[in-house]
Write the structure tokens for this entry.
Amino acid sequence: MSHHPAITQLLSANAQWAKDVEQLEPGFFKESAKGQAPHTLWIGCADSRVPESVITGAKPGDIFVNRNVGNQVNLEDDNMLAVLTYAVEHLGVEHVVVCGHTECGAAAASFGACASFVPGEMPVTIPVDPADAPLNRWLAPLTTLAASLQISSAPPNEALPLLVQENVKAQVDNLCRTKVIANAWANGKSPKGKEVWVHGWVYDVATGTIRDLGISQGPK
């Protein structure tokens, strides 16, 4: 048993949750152990305030998940590509959601750094870290996007919501460029026989609500 209060609380809450679920839906966990068939892949931010299953009221087994700093779809990220491949081609998800959120620390850092952006050079988003530090390498595309929007002189309360939204749009575009999605659309369905749709959402931390950006794409 851990002597750290926060960890003790997590373990205690888990035990109570498992008990409550079993009482409300007897056999749920035994059924869950037989396998998973999620309908959605969620690509979201690692921010602790945006737990996908909680904010959508989903159950375990509903959503396959990939979360990272700034909800990025980096086409050179083997982790993201592996998750996408497994979700679409092996689990048969029908929806892939990219969800950004308000009050995003990654967006704020990239906005703060975009004023010093130099075309042709990798931006340094977190100046206290080495230029080639993992966080700077990871955030470089987001800072580059912020610079392209020419928002460095705009008030943060105007610039940041725009950057969050445009970032989601950019990541949806990246998703649509992957072989996994392109193949599913070219064939009409995924290898699991499902039509695949890509969506872009923004979660408002201050209200707890999700806004659909209306940029969904699917089989032509």
Remarks:
- The radius of gyration is 19 Å.
